[in-house]
Amino acid sequence: DRLLQNADRRLNDFLVQECEIQTMMWAYLLVTWFLGFVVAPHLLVRMWDVYVSEVDGFAELNVYVCVAMIIRFRDDLLSLNDMEEVMLKLQDIPQSKWNVEDVEKLLAESLVLRHSFREEE
Hints:
The longest helix is centred in the last third of the chain and has 21 residues, at about 100-120. About 75% of the residues lie in helices and about 0% in strands. The protein contains 8 helices and no strands. Helix 3 crosses helix 5 (about 55-70) and helix 5 (about 55-70) packs across helix 8 (about 100-120). By secondary structure, it is an all-alpha fold.
C-alpha cells in the first residue's frame, strides 16, 4: 500500500478510498495476467530473465513490477467509476498490444521504483 501511495497518491486514493480495492486485489490480477501465460511466451521469458538475475529475485521485484504496471494504466483507471469497472479493466488487459519494448520499459520503471523506494527507507 505504501509503495503505490508514495509513487502515485492520486491513483492509490482512487483505488483504496473511492473504489475500495485493496492492493492485494489489483496486484493479484496483474500477477495472474503476466505470469499466467496471457502475455506472449517470449515476453514472459524476458521478465523471468530479470527476476532470476536479481539478488532478491521474484519475491521483491514483483512488487515493484505490479506497481509500475498499475501506474501504466493510471489514466484509464481514473476514468472509471467503481470497483467493478476497475476490476474488469484489469482482467481485460490486451496482450496483443504488448511488445519487447513495453516489457523493457515496465522492468526499467520497476527497477527505478525499487531504487527510489529504498532511498526513502
